[in-house]
Amino acid sequence: MRVTTKGQVTIPIEVRQALGILPGTEVDFVVRGTSAKLVKAKQKNGRLSRGEKVVAHLKGRGTANLDLTTDDILKLMRGWGEEDDIGR
Question: According to DSSP H, which parts of 1-88 are helical?
Fold first, then answer.
C-alpha cells in the first residue's frame, strides 16, 4: 500500500466490508509507537456520521415477495402485456 502525495491511502475492500465503512464514514487513526490503527470514528455528541445516516435511512425500506419466480421477476423488469399472467 502506498501513500499518495496528498497523504491518502486506499482502504482495501475486505477491510471496508468488515468494518462497515461506506463513503462518508468518519474514521480515525490511533497511533501507538511506530504503528497506526484505523478505527471507525466514535459518534460525537450522539450524532451519526454521514455513512451511518445513509445506512439508518436505508434499513428496512425494502420489501420482498418470495412468491415470485425468476420468470416473474424477469417479466416485471422487462415490462409485460395483457397476455402475461403475473398476479392472476
Answer: 13-19, 50-58, 70-78
The domain in which residue 55 lies consists of: 1-61
Model confidence, pTM: 0.44
| Cell numbers placing 46 | 450522539
Q: What share of the chain is helix, strand, coil (3-state, %, to 5)?
A: 30, 15, 60
Buried b (16+ CB within 10 A) or exposed e, 33-43: eeeeeeeeeee
- Whether 46 is covered by a domain: the verdict is yes
For the chain, residues with pLDDT lower than 50 are none
66 found inside a domain? no
pLDDT tens string 26-37 = 888 899 999 999
Specify the number of domains making up the chain: 1
